[in-house]
Amino acid sequence: MNITSFLIYCVVATFTPGPANIVILSTVQHFGAKKAMEYVCGATMGFGLLLVVSTMLNRILADVFPNILSIMQIIGSLYMLYLAYQVYKMGATEAKDIQTTSFVSGLLMQFVNPKVVLFTLTVIPTFVMPYYTSSLALFLFVIIITLIGFLAFTTWVVFGRIFRRFLHNHQKVLNTLMALFLVYSAIMVSGIL
Predict the structure, then answer these.
(1) Which of the pair, 94 or 27, is modelled with greater confidence?
(2) Which positions, given as ranges, span the membrane (predicted)?
(3) Are the C-beta atoms of residues 73 and 114 closer than 8 Å to each other?
(4) CA 121, 122, 123 angle in degrees (round to 5)?
C-alpha cells in the first residue's frame, strides 16, 4: 500500500473547499466556533458512517453505482442550493438559529454531499481493500480517515475563528461569495455544465 498517495488523497479531498466546509466557515462567522463545532460533530459522524457503509457494501454499491450517483446528484444539488440561499440571506445582526448549523444538518449534509459520497466510495476500495481484507484492518482505516475528516472540518473552524473580525467586516461580500460557491458546486454536481 502506498501510504503517501493514500494520505495525499485523504488530505486533498477533506481539506479543500466543499459544501460542508463553506457552511462551517459561514457558521463560525455568524454563530461562533461552539455552534460550528456542533455542525462539525454531525459532519464527522456522517462522514464516518458513509465510510462504514462504503466499506461494508462496496460490491453491492458498485453494481448500482450509476443509479445512486444520479440520485445523489439531484438531492445534493437541491440541498446545496438551499444552503446557498441560507448563507446568502444571513445578516450581521441576525442571531436566529438556522437549520444549516445543527448537528443533524452536519450529519445529513454528508449523505447528500457528492464530494464526500464519491470520496467514501473510492478511498477504501482503491487504497485499502487491495492490501487489507480483515475486518479489523478495514475498521482501523475507517477510523483513521474519519479522524482526518474531523481535522479538516476543525481546521475550517479555526480558520473562521482567526479571521472572524475580517469576515464580519466584509460579511455581505463573503456571504455572497460563499453562496455563489455553493451554487457553483450545485451546478457542477448536477451535471448541467
Answers:
(1) 27
(2) 6-28, 40-62, 68-88, 116-132, 138-161, 173-192
(3) yes
(4) 110
Total residue length of the chain: 193
Q: Is the pTM value of this prediction over 0.90?
A: no
Written in H, E and C, the secondary structure of the chain is: CCHHHHHHHHHHHHHCCCHHHHHHHHHHHHHCHHHHHHHHHHHHHHHHHHHHHHHHCHHHHHHHHHHHHHHHHHHHHHHHHHHHHHHHHCCCCCCCCCHHHCHHHHHHHHHHCHHHHHHHHHHHHHHHCCCCCCHHHHHHHHHHHHHHHHHHHHHHHHHHHHCHHHHHHCHHHHHHHHHHHHHHHHHHHHCCC
Compute the distance between CA of residue 16 and CA of residue 156 in angstroms, rounded to an integer.
10
The model's confidence at residue 187, banded by pLDDT at 50, 70 and 90, is confident
The set of residues, in sequence order, having a beta carbon less than 8 Å from that of 78 and lying 6+ positions away, is 186
Residue 109: pLDDT above 90? Answer: no
Q: Do the beta carbons of residue 144 and residue 9 sit within 8 Å?
A: no
Name the more confident of 90 and 81: 81
